Amino acid sequence: MHATLHLLTRTDFPPLRRRAVETLQVNLGYRCNQTCVHCHVNAGPARTEEMSGDNIDALVAFLDANPDVRTLDLTGGAPELNRHFRRLVIAARSHGVRVIDRCNLTILEEPDQEGLAEFLAGHGVEVVASMPCYLQDNVDRQRGKGVYDASIRGLQRLNRLGYGRDGGELRLDLVYNPQGPSLPPPQEALAEDYRRHLAENFGIVFNQLFTLANMPIQRFGSMLVSKGQFDSYMQLLRSAHRDENLEQVMCRSLLSVDWLGYLYDCDFNQQLDLPVRMNQRSRVHLSEITANLLEDAPIRVADHCYGCTAGQGSSCGGALLEKAEV
């Protein structure tokens, strides 16, 4: 694995400061039932890192103490593999917090995940599902043989439970990543291709497609270094930077939490080990702070941040420019 942090820290990316924290994005662990080429957290079946019960309790306490944080965004690895996943979901929903599950779809067929889809639907959890292409060859090449078919079955199962229906309460969004070192195509046009292909061939419906740029870190960054493509990809991102995306970048209103409970400006900084700093402390734990203390704090930036501001922009909620125009 080639580290990329040393290639990113010398940067001229514009300075950013935080606004009020609206979303808490939590990495529940790096264990996953898949090993994807583009994975920026290097997740896989052999990883053992998992958020503990004590840190789950700290998350619930943080939500109690910070009522303006209204969204809990759960990620991993496969977040559902954390043994405390369902307890956390129930606690958050009981407080009226919006919960998002970043689901890889194939997890719904794992032997120890019986009833997961029904659990998500029963608690009104929004599903953001990885679906890096609507064509089988591309998905299986990026995520592994058989993943496409299992993903289709997962989407159909969620549809049967009411997910993705117009006017319905159960939201189902899909996520697209490019196959290699290129920027995502325009989000809305690609979404129409997804809708047409998935509806005509499988009867699948969904709410929205999010297009995300691949970050030059962890597994994807290492692949770029191995192929001699790192510098050219960074030049692509830098040359496509648009200042207007700076208003919408997710780090300004999102707080990222790692599996140990420490705070970061975003999930990408988490994977580069660039934690939030306060009062000259190198790391800050979730249990040691309230959200209002972070308002107007500087955000740690490096060259990978150009991945969020290139072209139409990229965030966990999809393209930034199209989002701003809605």
Terminal Cα span: 40 Å
Q: What overall geometry do the principal axes of the alpha carbons give?
A: globular
Q: Can you list the strand order of the major beta sheet?
A: 6-5-4-3-2-1-7-8
What is the string of helix and strand elements? HEHEHEHEHHEHEHHEEHHH
* Structural class estimated from helices and strands: alpha/beta
How many helices? The count is: 12
Number of strands: 8
Mean pLDDT: 91
Q: What fold name stands as the CATH topology? A: TIM Barrel
- Uncertain segments are none
At the first level of CATH, the class is: Alpha Beta
Largest sheet: 8 strands, mixed
In the CATH classification, which architecture applies?
Alpha-Beta Barrel
Proportion in β-strands:
5-15%
Helix content range of the residues, please? 25-40%
Number of structurally distinct domains: 1
Radius of gyration: 19 Å
